[in-house]
Amino acid sequence: MIATDDIQVRHVYLNVPHSRNPKPTWYGESVGRYEGDTLVVDTIGLSTKAFVDNYRTPHTEKLHVVERFQIIDGGKTLEVKIHVEDPGAFTTPWDASQRYVRSDLRPIQERVCTENNANYFNIEIDPTPKADKPDF
């Protein structure tokens, strides 16, 4: 999975078991499998420096997340149902969901801070050069 606004990549390994003792990382160790048309992603080994949500909710090394990705609405929407368990941080498991609506308004863009092509401060800068065709 690639984030559209920077160069972060999350790997989901299909049809393999979890490692015995995964090293904690920002994205943890994600293994996936298909159940019909739903991609089920099971993640453990998330670093305690990461947060569970946009509210910066902390967690312990016992965090276990299961996500269920499914395309709905005739291919127009990606729905993700999330199940979170962490007996070291929460008194009960909890669920959340997120929907991502397909947009054809613009192509996926890469934004790299070092090139400053986002122009956050409305400064007049030359546009980032673009190739007409790939050079590979």
Quick description:
Strands 1-2-3-4-5-6 form a six-stranded mixed beta sheet, with no helix packed on it.
Question: Which term fits the overall shape?
Answer: globular
Q: Total helix count?
A: 0
Class by helix and strand content?
mainly beta
Tally of distinct domains: 1
Radius of gyration: 18 Å
Element order, helices and strands? EEEEEE
Walk across the major sheet and give the strand order: 1-2-3-4-5-6
Strand content: 25-35%
N-to-C terminal Cα separation, in Å? 23 Å
Count of extended strands:
6
Quote the average pLDDT.
Answer: 85
Oligomer: single chain
User: Ranges with pLDDT <50 over ≥5 residues?
Assistant: none
Can you give a write-up of this model?
The chain is an all-beta fold and 136 residues long. It has one domain (12-115). 0% of the residues lie in helices and 32% in strands. It has no helices and 6 strands. The protein has strands at residues 12-14, 29-35, 38-44, 64-72, 77-85, 94-101. It has a 6-stranded mixed sheet with strand order 1-2-3-4-5-6, with no helix packed on it. Strand 5 and strand 6 (94-101) form a beta hairpin. It is globular. The relative contact order is 0.14. The model has no long low-confidence stretch (mean pLDDT 85).
